[in-house]
């Protein structure tokens, strides 16, 4: 039995949410999605039993954004194990290191089951490491093993619930995916707090928000210039960050609305000419997600390894520094560039180069490559005017658009994420990019679902 | 010409966060209804809150 077979078998024997026998309507989907988000947010505010505030292992902001995690709570691991397992499986399959042919129903099911099995293994490993790390000091020194097991047990159950919440939404009970919803909710929470938070939450690096801070300075006749650029505190939202946040949201909305139109005709529509759009941001925010997951995983295992093996932690810390900007002890604002210019350059290069690599790999993994797209077009009876309906010919034409689009969109999203982080955007550059793209995809999804409900004939046309 | 059902099955289910999952076939051995699962989640949260409030950690 290969390791993939073992993971797939493990995935099969883990409890799963049943698929709906009848497709829920839009309001039911919204209800299940809201329930999932509420449960997630409640778990992200319930402290783990047996963990004191002094022993909380602070997550990095980037880690909290990409893993939708909250330090010291039931959502300590967040969606980290799910997204890490998915990333590993997709990279292995995309690079052909794992020989799974995703063209058959059987292998598709095996791939999904193996992802779930691997995610569960990550849940076990991370939970027990956290259980050990979070309880090894303090007043519980007399029985750290027992308490460590209790903490690990809570983390295993809570993180598995998060996995099932995501599965429930993906299987058709809700809208879109749980992972996206949880990331969106986490980023929105951080942005809201950076704008309007009235107290500091030190365990989650949440400062007093910009507007309460501004009011406080105006009332006390303080120096208003001090909040234009934060030069003193590690976490303090400033005006440059606010302006960057708003500008970036507008820029991302604009970029996601740009399409490259390819003229086609359709046999189904009696040869009527129309166009099919290729998104300018062809790989969406995927490269940024992958680089951030890699960085966050290195940070996570580095911080845990510091309690277990200092030598391993030393190696991971050296790698980790290239993924973290600004460093933990300097202001998270544009002023960080003045204090650590070399760090900014190193972070930018590593992020952008990896972003391009992941973007190009993603095109192959997700079936966005010219060959797959050409095959889909031919099977759907779509032709390109002036060209024979031949997969190879259409593939050649699409390759002229798709590879440059994949390259440049990877560069653009990586530069946006890096630039925004350097300018001290609220919720990190990666967070804003993810939140806006996810929100826009949800907007499209809602419009699609609503159209299907309003015009039942459409359901038959799209095969629902 | 492929049927709409066939065409739909060819499209991988890509979540917005970049994870690819396929849920056309269900081979899982243990299936639970979402209602039972939500209740189990609420019970876990309640137990952790009750433990924290009533039983001090050792």
UniProtKB/TrEMBL annotation, chain A:
Biological processes, Gene Ontology terms: intracellular protein transmembrane transport; protein targeting
Signal peptide interval: none
Superkingdom classification of source: Archaea
Segments crossing the lipid bilayer: 30-51, 71-93, 117-135, 147-165, 172-196, 208-228, 240-260, 280-300, 345-365, 401-423, 429-448
Membrane topology listed for this record: Multi-pass membrane protein
Keyword match Transmembrane: yes
Residues of the Translocon Sec61/SecY plug domain: 38-72
HAMAP family: SecY (MF_01465)
Database matches in NCBIfam families: PRK08568.1-5
Record function comment: The central subunit of the protein translocation channel SecYEG. Consists of two halves formed by TMs 1-5 and 6-10. These two domains form a lateral gate at the front which open onto the bilayer between TMs 2 and 7, and are clamped together by SecE at the back. The channel is closed by both a pore ring composed of hydrophobic SecY resides and a short helix (helix 2A) on the extracellular side of the membrane which forms a plug. The plug probably moves laterally to allow the channel to open. The ring and the pore may move independently.
Family affiliation: Belongs to the SecY/SEC61-alpha family.
Quaternary structure (record): Component of the Sec protein translocase complex. Heterotrimer consisting of alpha (SecY), beta (SecG) and gamma (SecE) subunits. The heterotrimers can form oligomers, although 1 heterotrimer is thought to be able to translocate proteins. Interacts with the ribosome. May interact with SecDF, and other proteins may be involved.
Stated name of the protein: Protein translocase subunit SecY
Source species of the chain: Candidatus Acidianus copahuensis
Record gene name: secY
UniProtKB/TrEMBL annotation, chain B:
A matching Pfam family: Sec61_beta
Top-level division of the source organism's lineage: Archaea
GO biological process, one term: protein transport
Locations listed in the record: Cell membrane
Entry annotated with the keyword Ribosomal protein: no
Main location: membrane
Membrane topology: Single-pass membrane protein
Subunit structure: Component of the protein translocase complex. Heterotrimer consisting of alpha (SecY), beta (SecG) and gamma (SecE) subunits. Can form oligomers of the heterotrimer.
Annotated HAMAP family: SecG
UniProt name for this protein: Preprotein translocase subunit SecG
């Amino acid at each position: 039995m290969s390791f993939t077979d073992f993971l797939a078998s493990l995935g099969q024997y883990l409890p799963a949410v049943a698929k709906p026998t009848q497709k829920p309507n839009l309001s039911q989907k919204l209800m299940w999605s809201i329930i999932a988000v509420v449960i997630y947010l409640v778990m992200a505010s319930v402290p783990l039993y047996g963990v004191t505030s002094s022993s909380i292992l602070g997550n990095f902001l980037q880690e909290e954004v990409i893993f939708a995690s909250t330090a010291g709570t039931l959502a300590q691991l967040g969606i980290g194990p799910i997204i890490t397992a998915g990333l590993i499986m997709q990279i292995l399959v995309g690079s052909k290191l794992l020989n799974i042919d995703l063209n058959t129903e059987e292998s598709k099911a095996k791939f999904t089951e193996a992802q779930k099995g691997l995610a569960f293994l990550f849940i076990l490993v991370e939970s027990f490491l956290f259980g050990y790390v979070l309880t090894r000091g303090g007043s519980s020194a007399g029985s750290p093993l027992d308490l460590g097991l209790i903490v690990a047990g809570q983390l295993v159950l809570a993180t598995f619930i998060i996995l099932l919440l995501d599965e429930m939404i993906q299987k058709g009970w809700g809208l879109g995916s749980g992972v996206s919803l949880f990331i969106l909710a986490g980023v929105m929470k951080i942005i809201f707090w950076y704008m309007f938070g009235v107290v500091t939450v030190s365990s989650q690096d949440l400062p007093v928000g910009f507007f309460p801070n501004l009011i406080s300075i105006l009332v006390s006749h303080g120096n208003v210039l001090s909040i234009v650029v934060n030069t003193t505190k590690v976490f303090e939202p400033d005006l440059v960050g606010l302006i960057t946040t708003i500008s970036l949201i507008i820029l991302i909305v604009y970029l996601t609305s740009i399409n490259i139109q390819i003229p086609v005709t359709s046999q189904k529509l009696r040869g009527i000419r129309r166009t099919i759009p290729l998104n300018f941001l062809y790989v969406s925010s995927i490269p940024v997600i992958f680089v951030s997951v890699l960085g966050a995983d290195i940070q996570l295992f580095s911080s845990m390894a510091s309690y277990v093996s200092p030598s391993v932690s030393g190696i991971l810390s050296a790698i980790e520094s290239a993924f973290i900007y600004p460093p933990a002890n300097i202001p998270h604002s544009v002023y960080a560039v003045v204090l650590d210019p070399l760090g900014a350059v190193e972070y930018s290069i590593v992020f952008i180069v990896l972003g391009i690599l992941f973007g190009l790999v993603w095109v192959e993994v997700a079936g966005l490559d010219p060959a797959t797209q050409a095959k889909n077009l031919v099977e759907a009876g779509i032709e390109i005017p002036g060209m024979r309906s031949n997969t190879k010919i259409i593939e050649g034409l699409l390759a002229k658009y798709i590879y440059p689009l994949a390259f440049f969109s990877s560069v653009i999203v990586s530069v946006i994420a890096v630039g925004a982080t350097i300018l001290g955007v609220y919720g990190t550059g990666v967070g804003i990019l993810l939140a806006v793209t996810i929100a826009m995809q949800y907007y499209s999804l809602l419009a699609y679902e609503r159209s299907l409900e309003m015009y039942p004939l459409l359901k038959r046309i799209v095969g629902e | 010409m492929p049927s709409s059902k066939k065409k739909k099955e060819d499209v991988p289910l890509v979540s917005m966060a970049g994870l690819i999952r396929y849920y056309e076939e269900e081979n899982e051995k243990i299936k639970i209804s979402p209602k039972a699962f939500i209740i189990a989640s609420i019970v876990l949260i309640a137990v952790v809150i009750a433990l924290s409030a009533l039983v001090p950690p050792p």
